[in-house]
Amino acid sequence: MKKLLASMIAISTALFVVACGKSGGDSNYVNPQVCNSGYIWNGSACILPNGGTGGGNVITTTVGFADGSTSFMMGGRQVNGSLKIKNRGAYEAFLKDAFAICDRMIWGIEAGLSKCANWSTGYLYLSFTMGPSMVPAVTLTAYPAPNWYQYALNFGISAGGAAYNPLYLNNQNTFNLIPDRDGVPSQAFEIRAQGAWGTPAGRYLIQIQAHKGTLANTSINYDLAYKYGSQNVVFATGTLQRFQ
User: Fold this and answer.
1) Coil, helix or strand for 153?
2) Could you tell me which of 237, 212, 193 has the C-alpha nearest to residue 98?
3) Nearest 5°: CA angle at 47, between 41 and 48?
C-alpha cells in the first residue's frame, strides 16, 4: 500500500511539472541555435560578426560610413573629408571603366569633361551602408576640377551610352573579414563590389580595404583599389567617418 501511494504521488508530481511548463514556459522559451563556424546567433538568424567569433560587434541595425575629397553633408551632419588620390593613372582608369564618363573616344575626339584628366584633379566621394543582411551598398560620386571655365565645349560624350555618376553598387557586394594571422585575431575587413552592368568595371573588383577597425568604430582608415594594368592598385586612401 505504501509503495502504491508513493508511485501515485510521483506520477502526480511529474504531471504537475509538465503542466506548469506548458502553461507558462513556451512564451519565453528561447531555442538555442547552432550556427556554422564563424557565425553567431543574433536572436533571429545566424549572421557574421565583425571582428571574428567572440570579438567585434554584430550588426543588428543599419550603419553608414562616408569620406570625400572635401567636407560634405551626410546623414544630417557635416563630415570632414580626408580622401586623397594616390595614383592618378589608376583613378582615371576607374573613372573610365566604372563611371564611364570620360576617355571613351566615342566620336573620335575628346575635350573638356570628356577627358578623364579633367575629372581626376577634381573631387571624389565614397559612402557605404550595411544592415543585418551584411550586404553593403556602396555609392561613389565624382566631380570635375573646380576650374569650370575649361568646360565651355565638351566633345566625345555619348548621347546614349551608359554612364553612372553617382555610381550605386549593391548587387554583388560582399563584406569579408581579413583572416587571422599567426593566431592573432584580425580587426581588418574588406568590402568587395563589381562595377555596374554594361561597363568594363562590371568584370573587375572594386575594393574598400579597412586596415584596422570594426563597424562599431566612429572612424576607420581605408584604401580604395581598382584594376590598373594587370592587378588591382590602391588609387585613393582616407578615413571613413560613421554617419549612421
Assistant:
1) coil
2) 193
3) 120
